[in-house]
């Protein structure tokens, strides 16, 4: 018989103390549909709150046997459930389990809230004013305990933050490091501004090449030039030759120079081309997930060439919207992407 999620949750509540401490405050006995599972959860919770440790299967069986007023069928079902959990020695990935437990708690809370609301509606004497509170409580179920920074109580982590050196991606140009106080911090959107034809893309190719040499994983997204043209510029920068000389370079010499670069760095550079004005933050989020899944590639910095010719995820192209508002929306979405993936984005 296939293992149900509820049984997996109960198993880890008994076997995994770290998991139990994270999820126990959010799970309620009424979330379990089966009578024996709900009863077993109550016993696990009672034991943990009393002894501050996860119970052993033997301790649970003894506690259940000593309880008064339990019918024989429930006692037998619960004992069999404990024995089944005890015999299951498989390991469940903790991150997946926590995410699945949170989703399960949300689903069960909403289901129970809706059913309670229906009962109140059907009951002529029921107070319908309770329904909004019931549904609000059900929808607010979340494992995220961070609901804000308490200025007075949270002084210590704030002090530690003040004295923690922020992780930055440095430039290979001393002046740029001076201006940015050591480089580009994570979770930021950084814009390189200059006139037409001055060399913004050349500058970004230079910075991308320097990040690669530092051993960083670099993702370069281009909506203006072809992938091959961006790669050509980065090639010329890394190999320290002109674009004209690069075209005349023999294949054996080119291979030797690339091998030399590979030996110097542990980083990777991925260049992805999108048609102009066709890609928004949703496409780029999907790209990042695909790279992680298929190539185990997580960028340390992302370059987007360039912001103004991206699309907006929220605003439909061609809508009655001025340029400032549209570009501002794109910038906000890219900044959100930088925060989500904890990387600096340069455009």
Automatic annotation (TrEMBL):
<dbReference type="GO" id="GO:0003678">
    <property type="term" value="F:DNA helicase activity"/>
</dbReference>
<dbReference type="GO" id="GO:0005829">
    <property type="term" value="C:cytosol"/>
</dbReference>
<dbReference type="InterPro" id="IPR007694">
    <property type="entry name" value="DNA_helicase_DnaB-like_C"/>
</dbReference>
<dbReference type="Pfam" id="PF03796">
    <property type="entry name" value="DnaB_C"/>
</dbReference>
<protein>
    <recommendedName>
        <fullName>SF4 helicase domain-containing protein</fullName>
    </recommendedName>
</protein>
<dbReference type="GO" id="GO:0005524">
    <property type="term" value="F:ATP binding"/>
</dbReference>
<dbReference type="InterPro" id="IPR027417">
    <property type="entry name" value="P-loop_NTPase"/>
</dbReference>
<feature type="domain" description="SF4 helicase">
    <location>
        <begin position="162"/>
        <end position="347"/>
    </location>
</feature>
<dbReference type="GO" id="GO:0006260">
    <property type="term" value="P:DNA replication"/>
</dbReference>
């Amino acid at each position: 018989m296939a293992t149900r999620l509820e049984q997996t949750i109960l198993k880890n509540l008994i076997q995994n103390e770290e998991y139990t401490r994270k999820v126990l405050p959010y799970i309620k006995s009424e979330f379990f549909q089966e009578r024996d599972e709900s009863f077993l959860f109550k016993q696990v919770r009672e034991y943990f709150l009393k002894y501050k440790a996860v119970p052993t299967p033997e301790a649970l069986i003894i506690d259940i046997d000593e309880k008064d007023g339990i019918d024989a069928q429930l006692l037998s079902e619960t004992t069999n459930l404990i024995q089944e959990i005890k015999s299951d020695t498989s390991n469940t990935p903790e991150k997946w389990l926590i995410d699945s437990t949170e989703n399960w708690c949300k689903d069960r809370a909403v289901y129970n809230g809706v059913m309670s609301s229906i009962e109140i509606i059907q009951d002529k004497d029921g107070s319908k004013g309770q329904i909004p509170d019931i549904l609000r409580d059900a929808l607010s179920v979340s494992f995220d305990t961070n609901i804000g920074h308490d200025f007075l109580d949270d002084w210590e982590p704030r002090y530690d933050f003040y004295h923690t050196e922020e992780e930055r991606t440095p430039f290979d140009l001393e002046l740029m490091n001076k201006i940015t106080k050591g480089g580009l911090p994570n979770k930021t959107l950084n814009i390189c501004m200059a006139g037409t034809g001055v060399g913004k893309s050349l500058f970004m190719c230079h910075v991308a090449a320097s990040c690669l040499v530092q051993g960083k994983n670099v993702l370069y997204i281009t909506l203006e030039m072809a992938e091959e043209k961006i790669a050509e510029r980065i090639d010329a920068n890394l190999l320290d030759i002109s674009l004209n000389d690069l075209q005349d370079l023999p294949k054996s010499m080119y291979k030797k120079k690339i091998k030399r670069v590979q030996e110097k760095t542990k980083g990777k550079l991925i260049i992805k081309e999108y048609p102009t004005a066709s890609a928004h933050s949703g496409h780029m989020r999907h790209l990042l997930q695909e790279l992680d899944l298929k190539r185990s590639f997580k960028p340390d910095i992302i370059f987007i060439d360039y912001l103004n010719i991206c699309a907006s995820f929220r605003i439909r192209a061609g809508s009655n919207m001025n340029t400032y508002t549209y570009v501002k929306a794109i910038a906000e979405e890219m900044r959100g992407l930088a925060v989500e993936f904890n990387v600096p984005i340069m455009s």
